[in-house]
UniProtKB/TrEMBL annotation:
<dbReference type="GO" id="GO:0045259">
    <property type="term" value="C:proton-transporting ATP synthase complex"/>
</dbReference>
<feature type="transmembrane region" description="Helical">
    <location>
        <begin position="215"/>
        <end position="236"/>
    </location>
</feature>
<keyword id="KW-0406">Ion transport</keyword>
<comment type="similarity">
    <text>Belongs to the ATPase A chain family.</text>
</comment>
<feature type="transmembrane region" description="Helical">
    <location>
        <begin position="187"/>
        <end position="209"/>
    </location>
</feature>
<dbReference type="GO" id="GO:0046933">
    <property type="term" value="F:proton-transporting ATP synthase activity, rotational mechanism"/>
</dbReference>
<dbReference type="InterPro" id="IPR045082">
    <property type="entry name" value="ATP_syn_F0_a_bact/chloroplast"/>
</dbReference>
<keyword id="KW-0472">Membrane</keyword>
<dbReference type="Pfam" id="PF00119">
    <property type="entry name" value="ATP-synt_A"/>
</dbReference>
<keyword id="KW-1133">Transmembrane helix</keyword>
<dbReference type="InterPro" id="IPR023011">
    <property type="entry name" value="ATP_synth_F0_asu_AS"/>
</dbReference>
<dbReference type="GO" id="GO:0031676">
    <property type="term" value="C:plasma membrane-derived thylakoid membrane"/>
</dbReference>
<feature type="transmembrane region" description="Helical">
    <location>
        <begin position="31"/>
        <end position="54"/>
    </location>
</feature>
<feature type="transmembrane region" description="Helical">
    <location>
        <begin position="131"/>
        <end position="150"/>
    </location>
</feature>
<dbReference type="InterPro" id="IPR035908">
    <property type="entry name" value="F0_ATP_A_sf"/>
</dbReference>
<dbReference type="InterPro" id="IPR000568">
    <property type="entry name" value="ATP_synth_F0_asu"/>
</dbReference>
<keyword id="KW-0812">Transmembrane</keyword>
Amino acid sequence: MLDGLNLINSLPLAALEVGQHWYWGIGNLKVHGQVIVVSWFVMGLLIIASLAATRKIEKIPSGMQNFMEYVLEFLRDLAKNQLGEKEYRPWLPFIGTLFLFIFVSNWSGALIPWKVLEIPEGELAAPTNDINTTVALALLTSLAYFYAGLSKKGLGYFAHYVEPIPVLLPIKILEDFTKPLSLSFRLFGNILADELVVAVLVFLVPLLIPLPLMALGLFTSAIQALVFATLAGAYIHEALEDTHEEEHG
């Protein structure tokens, strides 16, 4: 899933530009270098944490193993609440990866002073601060729920577009466009706004006032990761639920 994110993120999915960017040329493509760098940093943190937690498995967990088991239990509950006991297991890796990547990305932007590191153009920031990253995540979510429906029903999945009455076809098609738009712009807008507000206040009042806002930013960053993963699970559940209704109707 992370490889898919990097591939999609290298494509010009959105023309929206906020500030300057450090571009890498790959053939005819122009890639936002700062996004790739920080994305791999986030993935590196997740990989290191996973290896540290599984390096020496103990019957009575402690330390990093105990922490990661708590995280896994949280992700299991998150997926189970959206998809149900019977359906959540195949989708736990996808939903869990979405949550962890977004959560660590958001917190990296709030906790790590990326602006201290100089790059040729632009500045380093959380990957979710870039619209291309959030659009890529949203499109992966759309592909996931289409796959969920098609894997259960085959081409019969598309029958729900004209149920209960065919006149709903344009509305249901429009929903498929609005879902990724809503996911991507909500995440991008919240993270960008939070970082801009903190940056302005740090410039104006260097010490006292930004601290409570930074704490609030950490909380809202975690909520944004939870909202994105929850909605992804809900969309997948909708695709599977249509199948169940047709099977039991």
